Amino acid sequence: MIQVLAIITTHPGKRADVLAAFNENRAAVLAETGCIEYGAVVDAANLPAGWATFGADTFIVVEKWESFDALKAHAKAPHMAAYAAKTKEMVATRAIHVLEPVAG
Predict the structure, then answer these.
(1) Is residue 104 part of a domain?
(2) CATH code of the domain covering residue 76
(3) How many other β-carbons are positioned within 10 Å of the β-carbon of residue 23?
(4) Does residue 29 lie in a domain region?
(5) Is residue 50 part of a domain?
(6) What CA–CA distance (Å, rounded) separates 30 from 38?
(7) Dist. CA 44–CA 71, nearest whole Å
């Protein structure tokens, strides 16, 4: 299994707009062969002072895929190209972390 944490930071005030586009695209991603999990998360509300946060313009996409090949196919899917084009001007940075479980 492959896991992905995609850290998406939008231009100021655009997170809700990008999340709306993400949610419109989510069903298509969940229907992809090999998709186990695909959802967005944001900082929890009312965290104690000193706890780390990503901030008001950032969300994280948590993904699980059956294989690296399934993830590669996802990256090339037409609906992902459409989502990227739709959100391009609203996204400031995107960091995609591809992870695998530790044996043991």
Answers:
(1) no
(2) 3.30.70.100
(3) 11
(4) yes
(5) no
(6) 7
(7) 28
Strand (E) or helix (H) holding 7: strand 2-10
Residue 79, H or E segment: helix 78-87
83's tokens: 């989502």
DSSP state of 44: P
- Look up tokens 């901030």; give the residue: 55
Instruction: Please indicate, yes or no, whether the overall pTM of this predicted structure exceeds 0.85.
Output: yes
The one-letter amino acid code at 98 reads: V
Q: What is the pLDDT along the chain (104 residues), one digit of tens a residue?
A: 999 999 999 999 999 999 999 999 999 999 999 999 999 999 999 999 999 999 999 999 999 999 999 999 999 999 999 999 999 999 999 999 999 999 88
